[in-house]
Each structure stands twice: as structure tokens, then as C-alpha cells.
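Progress narrative, Year 2. Work on Aminotransferase from Limosilactobacillus gastricus DSM 16045 advanced from sequence curation to structure prediction during this period.
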Amino acid sequence: MSDINTTLLQNMRRELANIKPSAIRSFNKEVSSIPGIIKLTLGEPDFDTPQHIKDAAKASIDNNHTHYPPTPGTDGLRAAAANFLNTKYNLNYKPTQILATVGATEAIWSSLYAITNPGDQVIVPTPIWPMYLSIVNGMGLKPILVNTEPNDFVLSAQMIEDTLAQHDHVKVVLLNFPSNPTGKTYSREAIEEIAAVLRDKEIFVVSDEIYSELTYGKTHTSVAEILPEQTILLNGVSKSHAMTGWRLGIVAAPEGIIDKIITVHQFTVTTVPYTTQDAGEEAFSNGIDDALPMREEYIKRANFVHEAMTKMGFRADKPEGAFYYFAKLPEWLDEDTATFAHNLAYEQAVALVDATPFGPGAEGYIRISYASSMEDLQEAMKRIQKYLDSRRK
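Result:
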């Protein structure tokens, strides 16, 4: 192997120095070798992709859909996705306003790249999925972190107003709800108040609503319903249809804006594979309500975890959506969250996430993904109790 040319290494993209490997995935990999480990780390549904969707993928191959599909997505997928969004969330998208992406991560990247220039400011409510911060920093944008913990982990219209009063180059407001990691979501009133602050300003809203089908007791209101002319809506099938490995995301945006995002997409990944798109078309059409039975099971798991964790002294609100439990360590426990997560994994074979990488407001919190089976969750709660009992002695 050739030696590294240190001069070339120093001349690589500067922003990459600010990006570190995912702490969550690194920890997940580290603990995977622990015998009997119960992993409550990743947002990975334990459900299988519905059979009718897998059958559609098989038919796609049998029909020789193995060539280049259209860059923005097939006509069938774009129509099905538009109908899904319009039917579920009272939106008004045309198929031509839809882009199929390689997962929601590419949707975030392509959207932000299309609408920003280096140095633009992006309002990022925290705690938030760390991937956002990596992408924003990697593009040379300037994240303005707004700690939402004082407002029950919801970005308020007043917080946005106060931030805009202090910064004059804001180009984007990022939203993610139901939220990873907090499990919080936004009421219709909160969305309307945010829209009132941003309306007619030269500011985009990039709204990641990938968990929109997994809301508990609340009707999901999309920002795109209230502020369609400024909103870039991100969605997909990973969480709603247990299709994380298929890598299919969706971007919906006004014409003109979506065209620019499609251009970035074309020169980044070219297109999404035909088989994935055909499976996605089936999911959005004949599987339009596939998430409902999964949601009912997630509600049961959320209630169980909340009851068990609060009895053990963790402080948290009951989740309102997604499949994450965001809790603060018991006050008596003299450990930081990184130490707690590490020791729990190696002593009791339960892996959960130290929430610190999710940004300001996440200090002292841990995140549990309850996208695991009820059997695993029940055993995990017993093991966490054993760990706490060992620390009381």
C-alpha cells in the first residue's frame, strides 16, 4: 500500500474535519459482540416488510425492470406518493412535484444542497438526529442550534422570532416531527404559529415527517398544508412500512424548487433502483394503511416502557409518536449518560443510546428505541432494574 501523501490529506475538504462517525452506530457495532445483548439502539422496526410489497418487488424483477428508471422516479411511484400525501395529510401535490430519493438521508442532502450556499444559516432545533448536524456542517453551512428543552422539546414560533432577530442570514428552518429522539410531535396550532412567523420571508422550511404515520392520539398536521409555498417536505416508507433497507425516501416541493433538487439528485445518485420504486409504489397505493397495525403495537410498547421506566425513577413524558423513549437518568444515580450506557451494555447486556450527540438539551438523557419485540423490551426492563439495584448497594 502506498504511503499517504500528507499534503493531499491536508488539502481535502475542510468541513470534513467537523464531521465524526456516527456515535450511535459506532456504539451499536461495539456492543454487538456482547453475548445475549438486547439492542435498543437503532431506529429499526422489528416488523417485516408486508408480503404484498415484497411480491411487487419480485414481479418488478420478473418484468425485467432492471434498467435505468427515470431520474425523478417512475410515473407510477410519483403518482402513488402524491396520492398518499394528499389523502393522508390534506395536501395538494402533483406527481411532478415528487422526487424519489435513496432514503430520507439523501432527501435531506439533496434538498439542502439545492437551496443553500456556503455560509447560509440554518435553524436547527435540538435535541435532533445527529445526521442533520453532520450534513449542515459538511456543506459549510452555519447551524444555529436552538435548545427546545425549556419548551417541552418543541420549537415554538417565539423561539424562531427571537432567533431571527439575532441572525440576518437564515436560509432554512429544519423541523423533524414526530421527533427522533424525543418522541414529541407538533400540534396544528404550533405549526400554524410557526407558519405565521415565516410566511413571506425568504426562508425555506425543510420538514422531515418520516414518522408521520406513527403518531399516538394526535392527527398529524404537515407544515406543507399550512405553508406549502415555502416547505420542502421529506417522507418515505422506511418507518411506516418497515422498509429501512429498501432505501426509498420522498421529497415533495413546489415546482421550480423540486426541479433544482432533482438536478442535485441526478448528479449525486442518478436514480433509485426500479425494484425499490415498484415496491414503493405498491406501499403507497395498496399499502396506504399498512402502518396502522404497527402503530397499535408501538403504542402498547411505548406505554409499557413508560410505565416501567418511570417506576425505576427515570423522568420522561409518554411518547407522542415515532418509536423512541427519551428519558433523564434518575437523580440519585451518580453516573453520566455515556458511563451508564457503557456499563449497562457490558454488565447487563442491554444497549441503549447516550443522547448527548443529539445536541443541546439532550444532556443527561438516554434514548431507547422500542422498535424491538415486546419480549425483548420486557427482558430489557428487568435487566435495567438489576443494574440500578447494583448501584444502590
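The two ends are 54 Å apart (CA to CA). The chain has a mean pLDDT of 96.
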